[in-house]
Structures are given as structure tokens and as C-alpha cells.
Amino acid sequence: MTSATSPTSTTPVTTPARTSEEAAGGIGSSPVRPDGTTKVRGEFAYSSDLWHEDMLWGATLRSPHPSARITGLDIAGALAVPGVYAVLTHADVPGVNRYGLEQPDQPVLAEDVVRYQGEPVALVAADHPETARRAMERIRVDYEELEPVTDAQAAAEGKGPAVHPGGNVVRHVPIRRGDPRATADVVVTGTYEVGMQDQAFLGPESGLAVPAEDGGIDLYVATQWLHVDQQQIVAALGLPPEKVRLTLGGVGGAFGGREDLSIQVHACLLALHTGKPVKMVYNREESFYGHVHRHPAVLHYEHGADRDGRLVYVRARIVLDGGAYASTTGAVAGNAATLGVGPYDVPNVSVDCWGVYTNNPPCGAMRGFGAVQAAFAYESQMDKLAQACGLDPVEVRTRNAMSEGTVMPTGQVVDSAAPVAELLRRVRDMPLPAGPSGEPDLRRLPGGVSNTTHGEGVVRGVGYAVGIKNICFSEGFDDYSTARVRLQAVGGEPAATVQTAACEVGQGLVTVLQQIVRTELGVEQVTVEPMDTSIGSAGSSSASRQTYVTGGAVRAAALAVRKGLLGRVGHVPGELSVSGGKVVSTRDGVLADIVDVLGDDVLEETVEWRHRPTESLDPETGQGTAHVQYAFAAHRAVVDVDTELGLVKVVALDCAQDVGKALNPQAVLGQIQGGSAQGLGLAVMEEIQTDGGLIRNPSFTDYLIPTVLDMPPMNIDVLELADPHAPYGVRGVGEPPTISSTPAIVAAIRAATGKPLTRVPVRPEHII
Amino acid sequence: MIPFDYRRPDDIGTAVATVTGNPRAAFLGGGTNLVDHMKLGVAEPELLVDVTGLTSRDIERLPDGGLRVGAGVRNSDLAADPLVRERFPVLAQALLSGASGQLRNLATTGGNLLQRTRCVYFQDVTTPCNKREPGQGCSALEGYHRHHAVLGASRQCVAVHPSDLAVALAALDAVVRVQGPGGERTIPAETLHRLPGEHPERDTVLEHGELITAVDLPGLPFGPRSRYRKARDRASFAFALVSVAAALDVAGGLVRDVRIAFGGLAHKPWRARLAEDALRGRPAAPDEFRAAAEAELADAQPLRDNGFKVPMARNMLVSVLTELSAEDGAA
Ligand SMILES: Cc1cc2nc3c(=O)[nH]c(=O)nc-3n(C[C@H](O)[C@H](O)[C@H](O)COP(=O)(O)OP(=O)(O)OC[C@H]3O[C@@H](n4cnc5c(N)ncnc54)[C@H](O)[C@@H]3O)c2cc1C
Ligand code: SF4
Fold it and tell me: Does residue A691 sit in the same domain as residue A557?
């Protein structure tokens, strides 16, 4: 276990000792990230820094209304502005004016209606961003405003006007297991709400589109999945895939908010139209309109248990507000439903989850993806159950904890480690922070440096939560990654290169891929090539899947290269391996330098790698082995609450998580700290405020995210229980800590205040 | 942003005459509020007259133990000044609880006082707002208004003034020195800002073209026993939900004198005269503090979602006075 006094000084991690022959910087170590220094020094080139001589600036005219009919559109005034090169509307979209991750329901540019505030209506390319802005003011759009649909609950019930022709239910996911009429001695019910959270990545949407001589386009862009962007761009531009080439720009965070298209098609349209490179960069305000958010949710739960607190049944009805377009609402609903009872063994389950259309801002992927909303509700319920049964919150959870072999509500049998009870015990047994003594440090009190309290009226509370997340893409999706590994001698040293289209979004993937190749090929010098579409898809940098899937692909490619290399040594006694730049035999030790075996040849292998397949869910019963892998994290939060002012200071936020295998222990800690902080944000401050479908706080002055003063130091305990089905035994790391962090903090605030707190974020007005 | 001219006149008289003579001219301090408003389209001046080189950047001692703060003094410098910290800790604390280090390095004393409300509708030109465009209506009344006023508001506008500095100045009986086309005048800080009434477009009593040149802090013997407290949605770098500036003088267990102003409750820093009057001569005890706070807040008229400000203000005042009285007793 690690114990730390500041958020940055956490030292890793239960990592088994390495054998000396492994290449330095291989898996299990934490080598310096190639992008680390430049990012810290402010020298890293983000996609917003992209530049091209002769480039134009693109800008997007957006709808000010959440729901309106467009009755007129006149671009003549804008075209007349000197310095303007193009003004485009839907009529200029050469291909299909629709895109979308799950269903193409979203226009590239609005036609006769707009369905959310911020929907793109027209584009301008000009010699300067200011020229573009002024030109946009001269585009006349006549709107006939319509009453926006903003009530997700009503949308789920089929009431009110339809936002799309097929009605407002994007997906309804029922899960039925056991007896739907089961009864129990102890019953607790509750209705919970989760506000709309923003990914709040620091690097706004940006990219540069460069028209090519072959009539195609080269797009440099910050994204999470190059190939799914490419597919959608191709359809909208009406070009063959080989004419739409994407290269990853420097990504300043993603968290799900870059899964959907933003500037991609727009920049390409403008560049193709003008024959010039076009750069687009959103500012912070536009970014709030330019990407999807976390689905706000209303969740009704009923838990039945025996008097010992053992769950008999769980019934739940969950409504997720998907906003104006589908994005990934279907998959988010699938997650909320299949993970809706949490990491517990429940014999009788009846869950219904609806993802719906409204005229609210579109919602889609965000770290935790449906599991976050459900966890706030089911963990709140577990605390209620503990109280009803007179049990300690850890005890009621461990009594019901699922484990390897548990049958999920979907009928899926859990076939690798599920150390739910162990994780809870570990956070429970961590040392508790000392209470304030002597002259208190204001930074550690609620209200922080605002001098709001010196300890009077402050009550401490402790809360627990544990969460579950599916790793990789689920429900029968063909989830794969492509990797190419090359080995050759460069300047007398063996050197490898790795090529994939997997997006480095800040999570440290580039480093992990280097580490894998170092370990498998026994060479230290490993270069990761720029990510682009000249190789096959790597799938998305989401669902905590990239180390698993692209890591798996790179490993497979490296193993294939190694096989070729060792094949050249011919038949020698003993088993052969590579290490420290040499070919080694178990019997005779070092046989040869890798460079000598290679000579002038280049060994290259390309592999398309898949994890084991999953099944879709039965549409009536929700049964099916839909998930590849489950991951778990538990948190214990300690809070001090100033009950007089309603202010909360999270004093400790300790976490235990099973990661299967920590390929890069420091990166694992980074994910757990970052995920926990994002969960803290949702617990006590982060919410996009909407009213009548309109966003009221599209700025970092009004949408607050935690600062270093809000986030406490963490004790982090990392378990490594290998998953036999996954490369190296890895289990996805990025999302689980976001899931349990929020409910643990709220449980702690409840423990301190006795308030019901059924909605996040919790605000002073809910406590005072 | 619309195109604009920028000028840096050589003397105050020219600056005042220039702005007075042009309804679309504005003084520029640190620009941390005005430039934001220009980007948002909330302010559209055609001429900026930079006064940061004209107004004093000095903090001078006054004969009565007070201080004169030049309008060009940066918020960081004011907060760090040893005399300010010693004589008027409430002022330094108020400044340091506002904005961020970078912003305070730029923000000026004059500009800070005249920063405008953070009402989200005021800053969004696509929504109706009487303060921006009189007669349009007030979107906050039925909209997103948890930050808004509970005291002294009108149906025309329920915005609050966001400055922390201004709250401390109101409590300290500061005097704002103003240069206008007709010469100099002084305005008590407490009355610089207005209640919205029928004219929410007017934040202050200043006329267009009047320049703040300095702020006088009269000597206050119990100034060292003063505090600023601020409740906000995160531990730093956020505007006040409620704040209080207080100074307390206790003798023989009785309140000899007291100064109290609230922030976050009204369209102006809310000098709590009722509470002050209720406390003078009374025992310095928590139930007295509570009664005084309740007297001050009795007329509060919360909106749908900001009722929490009333108990928050009450509890904050009780707690800060209790702390000050303990310190006073120990002294
Ligand atoms: C993200 C953010 C967070 C913030 N948080 C806080 C906070 O918590 N608490 C807080 O109190 N403030 C906060 N602020 C506001 C900040 O304090 C103000 O922006 C700043 O004090 C304004 O000073 P300035 O010199 O930059 O004014 P400017 O922007 O230059 O001017 C503001 C106004 O004053 C006028 N003006 C300037 N100088 C004079 C003068 N001498 N005489 C007459 N008129 C003049 C200008 O014409 C303009 O109308 C925050 C600001 C930001 C951007
Ligand atoms: S409260 Fe005042 S500033 Fe806000 S919308 Fe109403 S009138 Fe405008």
C-alpha cells in the first residue's frame, strides 16, 4: 500500500520484482513519458497550435435556439465581407448530410430545423478569425422558434412532441433476471438525480484541414478515434476513404468528449471548397456547445433484502437525457442497465433504462459512461439498506459483493477476478486522517483559504462506495486494433518502431506501447510513429480499452517479429528469448547480438488483434454475455462539513483498485488520481446548468472544476490480479475510479450531516 | 469584438475630458473585466482611455491613521501592503479571497470597484436583461439565479455586485475620490453602488466620464480586529455566494463599536446598519450576534433557488463576530 502526504508524492504500487534481463523501460516500470517534459514546459504542440502558411480560419455559425424551424438563410452579406473565402450551408455538403456514432441522425449543417442551442448552421472561411466572426454576424438566419422538449422523463413516457421522426426513445434496455415479483423483509427506495457533467478537457476542439492534389484532404485533428472520424467524414464528403487521410494532432484531454465529430467535416468542407488549408479552433465557450456531455439522469430504485442485509431483489427505472442527437446514448443506456445493480450478487433483478431525445445539449461519452449515474443511485441505496438493517456500510456491501463466478443480471458469468469485498476491506483498513489539532491549516478546512471557518461547526463524516465498469466495447461490437512493429539495426543498435492509429489523448498510451515492445523484443530504442489512418483502425481511446486492445495488438505484432528474428537463428538447443539487445538461449546464454541476426534486413509484422467476442443483449430480457471484462474500484471518502455554511472539504479520498497488471505503475496512479478528482467534481461542484434547453454557464468562471485545494492527497492501493483472458492480465484502469469516487464522497457528507442528498452535485443549499 | 481606438493621455484632465465628451469611450484599468465584456459583446466602446499610467499607484499614510489608495494600485500590491495588512486586515483578506493571482496582478483598485455583475444573463447578449438593455426584462427572475440577490432587489433586476474589495471598503467607511469634468468630489464607498430600482442599467452613482482617482481609508482604531469571510462553490477562484466584512471593538464584554457589510446579497455591498445599531452597547455574545443578524436579514426576499443565502449570511456573521470577540477578549 502507498501512503502519501501530497497528491503528487504517491509512490507505487504492489509490483512484483523484475528480473534483471528485462529491457530497461519495459512493462512494469514507469519510464519518462516522451511527451511529459514538453507538456510541463508548455512546449508541446497541441492541435490548436497547428499552422500552415497560407491557411484560412474557419468559424461556425450556431443556432441560438434549442428548437426552431429555419425559415430563411441568407449568406450574401457574409460573402461580401472582404477577406471571406467561403460561406457554406447544408446545401454545400456533397455527401450525406448526416453523421453519428450509433446512428447518422445529426446534420453536418442544419437543414430546416435546429434541435439544440449551438447546432451548426453555417460555416465561414476567412483570412483571419476576426474576419470570420464579423462575416458570421452578416449571415441572416430566420428562425421560427418552437417550444423545446426538455423533460427527459416525459420523453421516456412518449409524451410531448417528437424531436426526431421515430419518437423520443433512443433506446430502452430492459434487464430481467429471476422472479419479477420477489418480495423481501427489508425494502428501501429512493429517487436520485445526476446533473450534466462536462469533460472540461483543457485543449479545445481544433484541427487543420489541408486540401491535397489528388482532390482529397489531409486532416490533422485532436480526436479519440481516427477511423470512426474518417468513416463519418467520408460519408459527408462523398469521397472514397483513401482520399480522406487523418493524422492525430496533439490532444489536450478527451474523457469521451472527442468521440463525436466537432470540427472534422466542417474544416474539410471549407478546405475543399476554397482549395486552401483551413484551421478551426473553438474557444472555451464554443467548446461547451461543441461536444457532448455526461447524460443527466433520474434514477428510481427499490432494493429488497432479508434482515441480514442480503439482497433479494433490485428494481430500477433509469432515464438518461441524451439531448438532441443520439451520439452514444444507446451504449450508455446499455451500460447503465447492465451495470445497474452494481458489483453485487442479486438473484432477482428488473431494470429498465431509457435513453431519450430532448432539445437539451447532446450527451454521449464521458469517463464512466453510464456506470457513473447508476453507481450514484445504487451506492446511495446500499447505504440506506445498511441503515435499515443496522449494518455498517462496508459490511452490507461485502455481504452482497459479487466475486469470480457470480452470475450477472444479464446471465453473464464473471470469469476472472472480482475482488469487490477485498477492495472494500482494503480501503476500510487504511489509516484515517487525523482530525484537526492545534491551529488548523485553513487549506484543510471547508471553505479553504476563504477563511470561512476555523473549525467551529465542522463535522466529519466517512463514506464508502464501490463501483463496476465494463472494459472494452460491448454487446457484440467487433472491437479490434491494428499494429505494425518493425525491427532493424540503426547505427549498430537494434531499434524498433511501432505504428498504430491509437490516439494518445494524454493517458500515456505512447509510453505503454514503447514498454511492450521493449519487453517483447529486448530492445531499448523504440519509436512510436505518429498516429494516422495509413494503418488500420485501433478503435477508440475510450472504454478503458486502449492498453488492453492496442496493447494486445502491439504485443502480438512484436511477438510475430520476435518469432521471425529467432527463426533466423536456426535450430539450437534450449529455448530462445531476446533481452538487452541479444538473443539468449536458456541453455547457453547469449548467442548473438540482435543486430547481427538482423544484418541489413528489416523485420516487420502487422497484426489485427481482437479480444474475445461478446454477445448482444436479448431485447426483451437483457440476457447475454455482453461484456469482455469487468473492473472494480472502491473509495473511502472522509469529509469535513461546515454545517453552518454548507461547505464541504474532502479531507481524504482513498482508493483501492484491481488493475490486473500495472504495465506502467505511475500511469496507473495518474489515472486513479485523475479519475477520482473528476468524481469529486461531480460530487460537489461540476454541473452544466441548463434552463429551457439553454446552457447558462459555458465558461470556466461559471462551470467550476476542482482545483488543487479541493482535491485531497490520496492513499492508493493497487491490486494486480491478472485476468487470464487479457494481454499481460491487464484490466482497464481509466474509468473505475471516477465511478466510486462520487458516491463515496456523498455518503461521507450524508454521514456528517444526516441530510438525504439525493442529487449530485451537492451544493451548500442542500446542506445548510 | 468591435474595432476600437486606444489612447493613453498624459494627464487626468485630458482623460476625463476625452471620456466625458464621448458617450462610447471608456476608461481602461487592468482590463480584466472590461476586455471580457468587449469579447462577449456586453460592452462596445469605440475608444479606450488607458488610465493605469495616470491614476496613482501609491498607498499613502493619512494623518488620522488612515491610508489613501491610488486607483491604479494593483489588487496584489494592495493586499500585500504591510500597513494595509496591519491596520485593515479585512481589506487584504477580501482581495486575496477574490479571483486568482494572475488576475490580481492586473486588476486595479478603480477597476475592481467598477467591475460589473456576474449574472449569467447579463453576460449573454442573446438573453433579455434590463441591466444591459433597459426594458428587455430580467431573465434571472425565473431563471438560473442561485447567485442572485436576497436584499434590496427590484423586479427589474436581482443581480449582485461581485467585488470582494467593495464589501470591505463599505464596512471600513472608505471614501471614493472622483475626478469629473467639473472637478473633484468624494463619495462614501457605501453609497458608490446603487440598488437597482427602476434603473438597473446604472451600477453606481458615477456619471459617465467621472474617474476614480483614489480611495481613502479613514483611521479606524479597531481596524486590526477585522475579518473577511467568503463562502463559495469551491475552495478558491470563485465568486462569493455570501461574504461578510466585519470589524469589532469590545470593551468590558460589551460591543463598543462594530462595522459590518455583506457581499453576495445585494446589488451593492450591503452595509448592515440595522445589525450594527442592534449590537452597539450590547454584550458581545453569540445570541446577540444572531439576533442582530436576524434583524438585518428580516426583510430578505429570496428567489426560488437562493433562499440558502439567508441562513448562510446569518451563520457567517455570527461566526465571524464570535471569533472577533474572542480575539478581542484575549487582547
Ligand atoms: C475568472 C475571474 C474570477 C474573478 N473572481 C473574482 C472574485 O472572486 N472576487 C472579485 O472581487 N473579483 C473577481 N474577479 C473580478 C476582478 O476582480 C475584476 O475583473 C478586476 O478587479 C477589475 O479590475 P480592472 O482594473 O481589470 O478593471 P477593468 O476591466 O479595466 O475595468 C472595469 C471597469 O471599471 C472602469 N474603470 C477602470 N478604472 C477606472 C477608474 N480609475 N475610474 C473609473 N472607471 C474605471 C472601466 O471603464 C470598466 O468599466 C474575477 C475576474 C475573473 C476574470
Ligand atoms: S438580474 Fe439584472 S443583470 Fe441579471 S438578467 Fe436580470 S436584469 Fe439582467
Answer: no
pLDDT digits (tens, 9 = 90+) for A35-81: 999 999 999 999 999 999 999 999 999 999 999 999 999 999 999 99
Q: How far is the CA of B140 from the centre of ligand 2 (A)?
A: 6
Pocket test for ligand 2, best of B118, B130, B150, B203 (most atoms within 8 A of CB): B130
The whole domain housing B14 covers 5-50
Domain ends where: A565, A585, A610? Answer: A610
In this structure, the answer to whether residues A504 and A553 fall within a common structural domain is yes
Q: How confident is the model at residue B327 (pLDDT cuts 50, 70, 90)?
A: confident
> What is the pLDDT of chain A when averaged over all its residues?
95
The pLDDT of A87-95, averaged and rounded, is: 98
Q: How many domains does chain A have?
A: 3
Same domain for A129 and A249, yes or no, is yes
Q: Domain for residue A183, yes or no?
A: no
Q: Do B236 and A457 touch (CB under 8 A)?
A: no
Same domain, A80 and A105: yes
Total residues found in chain B within this entry: 331
Task: Read off the pLDDT of each residue in A472-490 and give the average, rounded to a whole number.
Answer: 97
Give chain B's radius of gyration (CA, Å): 19
**pLDDT (0 to 100) of residue A451:** 67
The domain tally of chain B equals 2
Most B CBs within 10 Å, among A450, A701, A768, to test the B interface: A450
CB contact under 8 A, B97 and A451: yes
Side by side, which strands form the sheet with A113-114? A113-114, A68-74, A140-145
Q: Please say if the pLDDT value at position A2 is more than 70.
A: no
> What is the CB-side half-sphere exposure of residue A431 using CA atoms within 13 A?
8
Last residue of a domain, one of A281, A307, A338: A281
A444, A645, A707: best mutation site toward chain B, by most B Cβ within 10 Å?
Answer: A645
| Residue B41 within a domain | yes
Residue A718 and residue A656 in one domain: yes
A332 in a domain, yes or no?
A: yes
- Is residue A402 located within the same domain as residue A318? yes
Q: What is the domain-level CATH number for residue B321?
A: 3.30.390.50
Q: Give dist(CA B104, CA B74) in Å, integer.
A: 7
In a domain, A35, yes or no: no
Report if residue A198 sits inside a domain: no
Q: Helices B89-96 & B164-171, crossing angle to 10 degrees?
A: 170
Pairing of strands A120-126, A84-88: antiparallel
Q: Do B96 and A710 touch (CB under 8 A)?
A: no
Separation in Å, CA A463 to CA A636, A742, B247, B293? 6, 10, 39, 34
* ipTM for the whole predicted complex goes beyond 0.90: yes
Give the CATH number, domain containing residue B43. 3.30.43.10
How many other C-beta atoms are found inside a 10 Å radius of the C-beta of residue A434? 7
- Nearest to B262, CA basis, from B176, B185, B155, B149: B149
Instruction: Render B231-280 in DSSP notation, one character per residue.
Output: E-SSSSS---SEEEEEEEEEETTEEEEEEEEEESSSSS-EE-HHHHHHHT
Residues of the domain holding A103: 47-146+205-281
DSSP string, B72-83: T-BHHHHHH-HH
Q: Which amino acid is at B320?
A: V
Q: Find the angle CA(B162)-CA(B163)-CA(B164) to the nearest 5 degrees.
A: 115
Q: What is the CA angle A291-A295-A300, rounded to 5?
A: 175
Pick the closest to residue B327 from B236, B226, B180 (CA basis).
B226
